[in-house]
Task: structure prediction
Amino acid sequence: MLMTAPIMFFVFAIVALAAALGMLLSKNPVSSALWLILNLFCVAGLYLTLNAEFIAVIQVLVYAGAIMVLFVFVIMLLNLAELPDLKKVEWRRIIAFTMGMGLLSMLTFISANALDMLPNPPSLAAAAENGSVTNLGKALFTVYAMPLEIIGILLLAATIGAVVIAKRKPV
Amino acid sequence: MDLAWYWTALIAFVIINFLLISASVLVYAERKVSGYMQNRPGPNRVGPFGFLQPFADVVKLVFKENIVPTLANPFVHSLAPMMMVVIAMAAGALIPFARGVVIADMDVSILVLLALTSISVYGVTLAGWSSNSKYSLLGGLRSSAQMISYELSMGLAVLSVVLISSSLNMVTIVEDQAGGFGLFAWNVFRNPVGCILFIVTAFAETNRAPFDLPEAEQELVGGYHTEYSGMKFGMFFLAEYVNFFVASFVIVTLFFGGYLLPFESVIVAQFPALADSYLLMALQVLTVILKAGFFAYVFIWVRWTLPRFKYTQLMTLGWKYLLPLALVNALVVAVVLAILH
Result:
């Protein structure tokens, strides 16, 4: 059990990255959406390796189950044409960019580590305790009650805006 | 209860085979019940009383040619039926069949179940899209629109149950219905509106009549599975029956006491030797199967009684009646619980 979590982390991370690339590179909008769904599932898997069951399920329920269903619905309804071919890919640039980003992230990590700026990762057991539904709900409705209410009002405003736009008569 | 992995694997094997067999039994039941409702005998040639008819059908489906339309997307065309079956079967892992007999006893199992129902629409939608046929595409589009519309009401109906039992775990939800003279603590008595809402939305989410617009055969030939043949079509067929059987199990678990025997506390008080025995476990499995079988019968009964909705009626019912009712119900349940505590 102890060993499987890190292995699963790398499996999910690699598949998530590959799916993100596939989403960017595929020419067909529906295949793009499918890659994105795979990516969202992998992110849910990453949450599971961190013992955050609730967040993982909500990720699948909200993103893969609701938002992406709507996306796929709209893409299929509009019947979008395939995108034109990509411009000629310059491999040297891609390799240079990847290596540069890798070097940058490594240097950032090392300097942050040397300056003691990294947060202490809580143990998996503590993380599971923090991520449980009860504690999450308590935190949301006590410490973070105000931001929660504001988000609620924001979403309500967005809903009303959407209804107003949808009801507008075509000019 | 933490089971060893081989026990979990064994239970999973048994449950998957149980669902496969029950799907064929349900196909037979549906054809027989519809036959009697329409004053005809139904299948009666293959085996005693035609009981082997579904098995003969499966053999026929296996031997049929697998036809993929020329302009279809072959990968997605094969992926869609697999997704349907896998998701339908996966929901079986979350249902408690007796005290301690459940494959995945998670803290948030009811949310996992909702997530599974909400992603099961991809099977239908992708099947419709990948077939490259307008009938299939319309079926897929209808399915996703229907799913989005009824998911909210379903979620709110589940929320009212979660409020009552103050847990997202399905085993806890079942155990919470144990008190109150053995029968009247069932959520159907404590939360009748939620129960009706959940049953109606369960019909919509499983694409069963009167909500079977995605496969309306008079308008769309066969809907999303028009372009499928052979065992791929068989997988859609299997998924439909597994889906509504699993939905009956969920209805029973959430609202009709799950695996609890009626008057279980009274019975166990009469026969103390029964408590925690294997006999009680067997009785509980039998109880939950009987209850779910009844609701599977209701699914069949409704299909052959009610005509299909029009699309406008479907949307009106979902958004203008069920959703406000579900919101009010959740609010009422929350307020009553707040007063009682």
In short: Chain B touches chain A at residues 76, 106-108, 111-112, 114-115, 118-119, 121-122, 125-126, 128-129, 137, 140-141, 144-145, 147-148, 151, 168 (CB under 8 Å).
